[in-house]
């Protein structure tokens, strides 16, 4: 498979894929996302809030906190990918954002394993939404691109 392979779709299909990804991603923040070892269940919005605030906490950051912060980077990367998906320009940036998000997903799962956390439906919606939006941005293009 050659590098730079893109899937050509109609503008309508691309918009439907974008909206599906955005819906999955947004719904994830309202659903229970994970449960920690003590049994506390966190909704998606709380997980996002924790990962944003982790670098500014009074405690010293350890490697596991860094994994949490990296997993939180999926949120801005996905939203930026969504915005970039409306143009056929910046292909390299779109691919870099998508690949970075994939790496950060692995960081999320490593954090979950280390901290003995159990993913809930919100986590799977979040991952699915990020994958769909990243894929739509990096791998799909309009059948009749505007130049």
Which terms would index this structure?
single chain, 147 residues, mainly alpha, three-stranded antiparallel sheet, two-stranded parallel ribbon
Structure description:
By secondary structure, the protein is mainly alpha-helical. It has one domain (10-141). 63% of the residues lie in helices and 10% in strands. It contains 6 helices and 5 strands. The protein has a 3-stranded antiparallel β-sheet. A two-stranded parallel sheet has the order 1-5. Strand 2 (32-35) and strand 3 (41-43) form a beta hairpin. Helix 1 (11-28) runs antiparallel to helix 6, helix 2 (44-53) crosses helix 3 and helix 4 packs parallel to helix 6. The two termini are 26 Å apart. The mean pLDDT is 85.
Rg measurement, Å: 16 Å
Fraction of residues in helices? 55-70%
Cα distance, first to last residue? 26 Å
Give the class from helix and strand content and strand pairing: mainly alpha
Whole-number total of structural domains: 1
Count of alpha and pi helical runs: 6
Order of helices and strands: EHEEHHHHEHE
| Average pLDDT number | 85
Strand content: 5-15%
**How many strands, what sense, and barrel or not for the largest sheet?**
3 strands, antiparallel
The general outline is globular
Detail the poorly predicted runs: none
Number of strands: 5
Multimeric status of the protein: single chain
Across the major sheet, the strand order is 3-2-4
